[in-house]
Design goal:
Strand content of chain B: under 5%
Number of helices of chain A: 9
Structural class of chain B: mainly alpha
Helix content of chain A: 25-40%
Shape of chain B: globular
Order of helices and strands of chain A: EEEHEEHHHHEHEHEEHH
Order of helices and strands of chain B: HHHHHHHHHHHH
Oligomer: heterodimer
Distance between the termini of chain A: 33 Å
CATH superfamily of chain B: ABC transporter involved in vitamin B12 uptake, BtuC
Largest sheet of chain A: 6 strands, mixed
Largest interface: A-B, 25 and 22 residues
Shape of chain A: globular
Number of domains of chain B: 1
Radius of gyration of chain B: 19 Å
Structural class of chain A: alpha/beta
Distance between the termini of chain B: 37 Å
Chain lengths: 230, 278
């Protein structure tokens, strides 16, 4: 369970998040939506430990074993690494700084690469990948990491439709395996289709609960959400 | 044929100081070229400048106080380099200046200060030697020091290689795993400082950074695989050291600039090759 009590985050003298009170149960698949500047990324970063709350606090019952998928645009795609190098980053919790990859871990790497549909591209450099392939790669890394809580910041921005469908299928599968998943989303139709729970943020919690009851015209308007109303 | 052979090898066969200079350069590039690769991947080349030029006032003050004693000069250089980096960082955080702007102004101030302090005690140490290196300055203790710095650097790099590269590619990934990324960064920068002060005797404070950066940049142009880039940077730096020393011997040029210019020729050739390939 993730618990937020009176949590605020202030960035450059303005509130990114204001007096957040919320508790998110485990084993849920939740979409986070809201207008630009609603604090969605800040919300994920506070859970991931990348940012500290300015006021209030965030806590969680069990020890946090989480994987964080950053916005694609925050990564340097000209970095001289191969597909397999990046997927192998997910092994860090198991092998740490100096251990080498065992043969069973190597099989797990190959399995993950195959699952996300990048088989044959193991030794390709990052700069040769399309936006969709790059996102598949990050999902493979997440799979290898095998965390209990997955945080995804706009995982389907700049990603083609077949990739989006494939990766949403993976999220669904991981959800069934009992993982807790939080994803910042833009496309409301995809949220309706795939996400059992939805959180609408606009610096504070506008609505949270089962998607069907949360995604009403009223709450969307309250969040000034204009994009993707469809 | 025989003449060319002689031209290439006789300086090292005949003179101990040339052999020392060659071994010194080879020792130091083994560790400083890989450091350069990581510096450019981390987009920290400007911090490299600040570190290297920042060492000069430290060396100068140490020289004024204790004279020509290697450990003191080295320590002074290292401390001053770290100070410049910390000051620039602090100023960039507290003012509207971007980090690159504050780095540039700080290393210029450090350089000016260093030159001024050295000129106060005129005649005893050749400023040119300090700035651009002198192969004659490489004696047995400084050779040992370089070999030591190089060995320790490579060993430490081996251990922290993985987190260093991961943090460079995706810092948020490392943070989300609750890893102390600042520690690796600090170790890395300390290694850079150690290599710069170790290299200044043969290459000079102005040129020490060159042997770190120029082969690394060239290697980055030529290869897209990280391991190949590391290898290529070391090979290019070794070649540049050797060719540079031969030229500096025969034409009586200062060793530092000659070595860097040879590395610079490789760089220009690599650019032409890359452009030609499209």
């Amino acid at each position: 369970m993730l618990l937020f009590s009176h949590l605020s985050h202030i960035y450059q003298q303005t509130y990114a998040l204001k007096d957040l009170n919320l508790h998110l149960p485990q084993h849920t698949l939740t979409a986070i939506i809201g207008p630009n500047g609603a604090g969605k990324s800040t919300f994920l970063k506070i859970i991931a430990g990348l940012l500290k709350p300015t006021q209030g606090h965030f806590s969680c019952q069990s020890k946090l074993n989480l994987a964080y998928l950053p916005q694609q645009s925050s990564l340097d795609k000209t970095f001289p690494l191969t597909v397999k190098d990046v997927v192998a980053m997910g092994l860090w919790p198991q092998i740490g700084m100096i251990q080498s990859v065992t043969s069973s871990q190597n099989r797990a790497l190959e399995q993950a690469i195959q699952t996300v549909g990048l088989k044959g591209l193991e030794h390709h450099n990052l700069h040769t990948l399309s936006g969709g392939q790059f996102q598949r790669l990050l999902f493979a890394r997440m799979m290898v990491q095998d965390a209990d809580i997955l945080l995804l910041d706009e995982p389907f921005a700049a990603v083609d439709e077949p990739t989006t469908t494939d990766l949403l299928g993976l999220l669904k599968q991981w959800h069934h395996q009992g993982k807790t998943i939080l994803a910042v989303m833009h496309n409301v139709n995809l949220v309706r289709q795939y996400f059992p729970h939805t959180l609408i943020l606009a610096k504070e919690v506008v609505a949270y609960g089962p998607t069907a009851s949360v995604l009403t015209r009223d709450s969307l308007l309250r969040a000034h959400l204009r994009e993707g109303l469809g | 044929m025989n003449n060319i052979f002689l031209w290439c090898f006789s300086p090292f066969v005949e003179y101990l100081f040339m052999r020392r200079a060659l071994v010194a350069c080879m020792a130091i590039v083994l560790s400083s070229a890989p450091l350069g690769v990581i510096l450019i991947q981390r987009r920290l080349s400007l911090m490299g400048e600040a570190l290297s030029h920042g060492t000069l006032p430290g060396i100068a003050i140490a020289y004024l106080v204790v004279g020509m004693w290697l450990p003191a000069l080295t320590l002074g250089g290292a401390l001053a380099g770290l100070c410049v980096v910390m000051f620039s960082h602090f100023i960039a955080k507290r003012t509207i200046l971007e980090e690159d702007a504050s780095f540039s102004s700080f290393y210029m101030i450090a350089l000016a200060l260093g030159v001024l302090i050295l000129s106060l005690k005129e005649g005893s140490i050749r400023l040119v030697h300090l700035l651009f290196g002198s192969v004659l300055a490489v004696d047995a203790p400084s050779l040992l020091f370089m070999a030591l710095v190089s060995t320790v650097t490579i060993l430490i790099l081996m251990v922290i290689y993985r987190p260093l590269i991961y943090e460079c590619f995706d810092p948020q990934f490392m943070q989300s795993l609750r890893l102390p990324s600042g520690v690796y960064n600090f170790i890395f920068l300390s290694l850079v400082v150690a290599n710069l002060v170790a290299a200044y005797q043969a290459l000079g404070t102005l040129m020490a950074l060159g042997i770190m950066m120029v082969p690394a940049v060239t290697a980055r142009l030529l290869s897209k695989r990280l391991t190949h880039i590391f290898l290529a940077s070391i090979i290019l730096a070794l070649l540049a050291s050797y060719v540079g020393l031969v030229f500096s011997y025969h034409f009586n040029w200062p060793s530092g600039p000659t070595i860097i210019l040879v590395a610079g020729c490789f760089y220009i050739l690599a650019i032409l090759y890359t452009l030609g390939r499209g």
